[in-house]
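Researcher: We're teaching a course module on how sequence relates to structure. For the next exercise, students receive a sequence and then see the predicted structure as C-alpha coordinates, so they can try to spot secondary structure elements on their own. Here is the exercise chain.
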Amino acid sequence: MRVLFSAAALVAATAAPAQTQLAPDPAPTPTVTPAATAPAYSATRILIASDSTAMTYGADRYPQLGWGQMLSCALQPGTEVINRAIGGRSTRSFIAEGRWDKLLAESRPGDTVLIQFGHNDASSNRPERYAPAATLYRDNLLRMIWEAKGRGLTPVLVTPPARRSFQNGKAKADFAAYSGVMRDLVATTGVPVLDLEGRSLALLDATGETAARKYYLHLTAADKAPGFPNGIDDDTHFSELGARALADIVAAELKGAKLPISDRVLADRPDLARKTPLGAGRCR
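Model: And here is the predicted structure for the students to work with:
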Protein backbone atom coordinates (compact mmCIF):
# COMPACT_ATOMS: atom_id res chain seq x y z
CA MET A 1 0.00 0.00 0.00
CA ARG A 2 1.31 3.38 -0.88
CA VAL A 3 1.63 5.86 2.01
CA LEU A 4 1.64 9.53 1.30
CA PHE A 5 3.45 11.96 3.60
CA SER A 6 2.56 15.57 3.87
CA ALA A 7 5.22 18.15 3.38
CA ALA A 8 4.97 19.11 7.02
CA ALA A 9 5.47 15.55 8.14
CA LEU A 10 8.46 15.15 5.88
CA VAL A 11 10.07 18.23 7.28
CA ALA A 12 9.43 17.03 10.82
CA ALA A 13 10.86 13.61 10.06
CA THR A 14 14.08 14.93 8.64
CA ALA A 15 14.64 17.63 11.24
CA ALA A 16 17.55 17.24 13.70
CA PRO A 17 16.46 15.51 16.86
CA ALA A 18 15.81 17.77 19.81
CA GLN A 19 18.71 18.07 22.29
CA THR A 20 18.13 16.27 25.55
CA GLN A 21 18.40 18.62 28.53
CA LEU A 22 20.56 16.97 31.18
CA ALA A 23 20.63 18.08 34.75
CA PRO A 24 23.99 19.65 35.61
CA ASP A 25 26.42 17.63 37.71
CA PRO A 26 26.25 18.55 41.33
CA ALA A 27 28.94 20.98 42.39
CA PRO A 28 31.85 19.16 43.96
CA THR A 29 32.13 19.49 47.69
CA PRO A 30 35.07 21.83 48.34
CA THR A 31 37.99 20.36 50.18
CA VAL A 32 38.65 22.45 53.25
CA THR A 33 42.27 22.62 54.25
CA PRO A 34 42.80 23.86 57.79
CA ALA A 35 44.57 27.20 57.86
CA ALA A 36 48.25 26.88 58.63
CA THR A 37 49.04 28.24 62.05
CA ALA A 38 52.40 29.40 63.27
CA PRO A 39 53.89 27.35 66.08
CA ALA A 40 53.12 28.81 69.47
CA TYR A 41 56.46 29.80 70.96
CA SER A 42 56.94 30.92 74.52
CA ALA A 43 58.99 33.97 75.40
CA THR A 44 62.25 32.23 76.26
CA ARG A 45 64.70 33.74 73.79
CA ILE A 46 66.53 37.07 73.65
CA LEU A 47 68.33 38.26 70.53
CA ILE A 48 70.82 41.13 70.72
CA ALA A 49 71.64 43.58 67.95
CA SER A 50 74.50 45.78 69.10
CA ASP A 51 78.19 46.66 69.00
CA SER A 52 81.40 45.77 70.85
CA THR A 53 80.04 46.85 74.23
CA ALA A 54 77.60 43.92 74.15
CA MET A 55 79.61 41.48 72.06
CA THR A 56 80.65 37.97 73.10
CA TYR A 57 84.43 37.51 73.24
CA GLY A 58 86.58 34.40 73.28
CA ALA A 59 88.99 33.40 76.04
CA ASP A 60 91.85 34.81 73.95
CA ARG A 61 90.47 38.31 74.60
CA TYR A 62 90.01 37.95 78.34
CA PRO A 63 89.37 39.99 80.43
CA GLN A 64 87.40 41.83 77.73
CA LEU A 65 83.72 40.87 77.84
CA GLY A 66 80.48 42.43 76.66
CA TRP A 67 77.33 42.81 78.72
CA GLY A 68 75.43 40.59 76.28
CA GLN A 69 77.91 37.81 77.00
CA MET A 70 76.99 37.88 80.68
CA LEU A 71 73.25 38.41 80.40
CA SER A 72 72.41 34.70 80.58
CA CYS A 73 73.69 34.75 84.19
CA ALA A 74 70.59 36.78 85.07
CA LEU A 75 68.06 34.44 83.45
CA GLN A 76 66.20 31.31 84.45
CA PRO A 77 67.51 28.00 83.06
CA GLY A 78 66.12 27.32 79.61
CA THR A 79 66.25 30.97 78.57
CA GLU A 80 68.45 31.43 75.51
CA VAL A 81 70.51 34.50 74.61
CA ILE A 82 71.43 34.76 70.93
CA ASN A 83 74.05 37.48 70.86
CA ARG A 84 74.58 38.98 67.39
CA ALA A 85 76.40 42.06 68.67
CA ILE A 86 79.65 42.72 66.83
CA GLY A 87 82.39 45.27 67.27
CA GLY A 88 82.58 48.44 65.23
CA ARG A 89 78.98 48.41 64.05
CA SER A 90 76.42 51.16 64.06
CA THR A 91 72.79 51.00 63.02
CA ARG A 92 74.00 51.99 59.57
CA SER A 93 76.63 49.29 59.09
CA PHE A 94 74.68 46.60 60.95
CA ILE A 95 71.88 47.03 58.42
CA ALA A 96 74.10 47.61 55.38
CA GLU A 97 76.06 44.40 55.99
CA GLY A 98 72.88 42.35 56.15
CA ARG A 99 73.32 41.52 59.83
CA TRP A 100 69.89 42.82 60.76
CA ASP A 101 68.24 40.73 58.04
CA LYS A 102 70.11 37.64 59.25
CA LEU A 103 68.95 38.26 62.80
CA LEU A 104 65.35 38.52 61.62
CA ALA A 105 65.73 35.32 59.60
CA GLU A 106 66.73 33.32 62.66
CA SER A 107 64.11 34.87 64.92
CA ARG A 108 60.74 33.36 65.73
CA PRO A 109 57.50 34.87 67.04
CA GLY A 110 57.68 35.59 70.74
CA ASP A 111 61.40 36.46 70.76
CA THR A 112 62.64 39.64 72.42
CA VAL A 113 65.16 41.75 70.49
CA LEU A 114 67.42 44.11 72.43
CA ILE A 115 68.67 46.92 70.18
CA GLN A 116 71.61 48.96 71.49
CA PHE A 117 73.63 51.29 69.25
CA GLY A 118 75.08 54.77 69.44
CA HIS A 119 78.83 54.54 70.06
CA ASN A 120 79.73 53.91 66.43
CA ASP A 121 76.83 55.87 64.96
CA ALA A 122 78.55 58.95 66.40
CA SER A 123 81.78 58.27 64.43
CA SER A 124 81.55 61.21 62.05
CA ASN A 125 85.04 60.39 60.71
CA ARG A 126 83.88 56.93 59.59
CA PRO A 127 81.28 57.44 56.84
CA GLU A 128 80.45 53.73 56.66
CA ARG A 129 79.35 53.92 60.30
CA TYR A 130 78.15 57.47 60.78
CA ALA A 131 74.43 57.95 61.37
CA PRO A 132 73.40 61.41 62.62
CA ALA A 133 71.17 61.00 65.66
CA ALA A 134 68.15 63.03 64.56
CA THR A 135 67.97 61.64 61.03
CA LEU A 136 69.55 58.38 59.86
CA TYR A 137 69.95 56.88 63.33
CA ARG A 138 66.31 57.58 64.11
CA ASP A 139 65.18 56.16 60.76
CA ASN A 140 67.27 53.02 61.22
CA LEU A 141 65.82 52.41 64.66
CA LEU A 142 62.30 52.86 63.28
CA ARG A 143 63.04 50.31 60.57
CA MET A 144 64.28 47.81 63.15
CA ILE A 145 61.27 48.41 65.37
CA TRP A 146 58.63 47.94 62.68
CA GLU A 147 60.34 45.01 61.00
CA ALA A 148 60.71 43.27 64.35
CA LYS A 149 57.07 43.87 65.20
CA GLY A 150 56.07 42.63 61.77
CA ARG A 151 57.61 39.25 62.60
CA GLY A 152 55.87 38.95 65.93
CA LEU A 153 58.94 39.94 67.94
CA THR A 154 59.18 42.28 70.91
CA PRO A 155 61.73 45.02 70.13
CA VAL A 156 63.32 46.74 73.12
CA LEU A 157 65.63 49.75 72.84
CA VAL A 158 68.70 49.95 75.07
CA THR A 159 70.45 53.30 75.48
CA PRO A 160 74.23 53.22 74.88
CA PRO A 161 76.29 52.48 78.00
CA ALA A 162 78.44 55.17 79.55
CA ARG A 163 82.15 55.44 78.93
CA ARG A 164 84.45 56.20 81.87
CA SER A 165 84.17 59.84 80.97
CA PHE A 166 84.12 62.44 83.75
CA GLN A 167 83.78 66.20 83.77
CA ASN A 168 84.27 68.21 86.95
CA GLY A 169 84.14 65.00 88.94
CA LYS A 170 80.81 63.92 87.44
CA ALA A 171 80.25 61.11 84.94
CA LYS A 172 78.97 62.51 81.66
CA ALA A 173 76.99 61.03 78.79
CA ASP A 174 79.02 61.06 75.59
CA PHE A 175 76.09 59.87 73.46
CA ALA A 176 73.24 61.92 74.92
CA ALA A 177 71.83 62.82 71.50
CA TYR A 178 71.50 59.14 70.61
CA SER A 179 69.94 58.05 73.87
CA GLY A 180 67.59 61.03 73.57
CA VAL A 181 66.32 59.73 70.24
CA MET A 182 65.61 56.35 71.82
CA ARG A 183 63.64 57.95 74.63
CA ASP A 184 61.64 60.01 72.14
CA LEU A 185 60.72 56.90 70.17
CA VAL A 186 59.04 55.41 73.23
CA ALA A 187 56.20 57.92 72.86
CA THR A 188 55.72 57.40 69.11
CA THR A 189 56.15 53.63 68.88
CA GLY A 190 55.23 52.30 72.32
CA VAL A 191 58.49 50.33 72.39
CA PRO A 192 60.10 50.12 75.85
CA VAL A 193 63.56 51.51 76.47
CA LEU A 194 66.08 50.20 78.98
CA ASP A 195 68.10 53.12 80.30
CA LEU A 196 71.53 51.54 80.35
CA GLU A 197 73.10 54.95 79.88
CA GLY A 198 71.44 56.58 82.89
CA ARG A 199 71.99 53.61 85.18
CA SER A 200 75.65 53.17 84.16
CA LEU A 201 76.30 56.88 84.72
CA ALA A 202 74.88 56.47 88.23
CA LEU A 203 77.15 53.47 88.78
CA LEU A 204 80.22 55.49 87.75
CA ASP A 205 79.27 58.38 90.02
CA ALA A 206 78.76 56.04 92.95
CA THR A 207 82.07 54.28 92.28
CA GLY A 208 84.23 57.33 91.56
CA GLU A 209 86.44 58.16 88.61
CA THR A 210 89.53 56.28 89.77
CA ALA A 211 87.85 53.20 91.22
CA ALA A 212 85.67 52.90 88.10
CA ARG A 213 88.76 51.83 86.14
CA LYS A 214 88.02 48.27 87.29
CA TYR A 215 84.94 48.20 85.07
CA TYR A 216 86.94 48.98 81.93
CA LEU A 217 90.07 47.67 80.23
CA HIS A 218 92.99 49.10 82.16
CA LEU A 219 95.87 46.64 82.11
CA THR A 220 99.64 46.66 82.10
CA ALA A 221 102.03 44.17 80.56
CA ALA A 222 102.55 42.77 84.06
CA ASP A 223 98.91 41.60 84.07
CA LYS A 224 99.77 39.15 81.26
CA ALA A 225 96.26 39.32 79.86
CA PRO A 226 95.84 36.94 76.87
CA GLY A 227 94.45 39.57 74.53
CA PHE A 228 96.58 42.47 75.71
CA PRO A 229 100.20 41.36 76.24
CA ASN A 230 101.39 44.97 76.16
CA GLY A 231 98.60 46.30 78.36
CA ILE A 232 95.76 48.64 77.43
CA ASP A 233 93.99 51.78 78.63
CA ASP A 234 90.44 51.71 77.31
CA ASP A 235 87.55 53.64 78.84
CA THR A 236 84.92 52.28 76.44
CA HIS A 237 85.08 48.49 76.58
CA PHE A 238 84.42 46.39 79.64
CA SER A 239 86.41 44.10 81.86
CA GLU A 240 84.68 41.06 83.33
CA LEU A 241 83.51 43.08 86.34
CA GLY A 242 82.21 45.82 84.07
CA ALA A 243 80.38 43.38 81.82
CA ARG A 244 78.78 41.74 84.86
CA ALA A 245 77.72 45.11 86.28
CA LEU A 246 76.25 46.28 82.97
CA ALA A 247 74.46 42.97 82.40
CA ASP A 248 72.94 43.32 85.86
CA ILE A 249 71.64 46.76 84.94
CA VAL A 250 70.10 45.45 81.71
CA ALA A 251 68.52 42.57 83.63
CA ALA A 252 67.06 44.90 86.26
CA GLU A 253 65.63 47.18 83.61
CA LEU A 254 64.24 44.22 81.69
CA LYS A 255 62.67 42.80 84.86
CA GLY A 256 60.90 46.08 85.46
CA ALA A 257 59.68 46.43 81.89
CA LYS A 258 56.82 43.98 82.50
CA LEU A 259 57.27 42.21 79.17
CA PRO A 260 56.65 38.51 78.52
CA ILE A 261 60.39 37.87 78.85
CA SER A 262 60.50 39.73 82.19
CA ASP A 263 59.30 36.65 84.03
CA ARG A 264 62.47 34.85 82.92
CA VAL A 265 64.75 37.37 84.67
CA LEU A 266 65.92 36.32 88.11
CA ALA A 267 65.02 38.67 90.92
CA ASP A 268 68.23 37.73 92.76
CA ARG A 269 71.34 37.81 90.55
CA PRO A 270 74.36 36.96 92.72
CA ASP A 271 76.40 35.80 89.71
CA LEU A 272 76.38 39.34 88.36
CA ALA A 273 76.94 41.07 91.69
CA ARG A 274 80.30 39.40 92.27
CA LYS A 275 83.14 41.66 93.39
CA THR A 276 85.88 39.40 92.05
CA PRO A 277 86.24 37.98 88.52
CA LEU A 278 85.86 34.31 87.68
CA GLY A 279 87.62 34.34 84.32
CA ALA A 280 86.50 33.68 80.74
CA GLY A 281 83.01 35.04 81.29
CA ARG A 282 81.61 32.20 83.37
CA CYS A 283 78.53 32.78 85.50
CA ARG A 284 79.90 30.89 88.50
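Model: If you want an answer key for the exercise: The helical segments are 7-14, 67-70, 91-96, 99-106, 133-150, 176-189, 196-207, 240-256. Residues 133-150 form the longest helix (18 residues).
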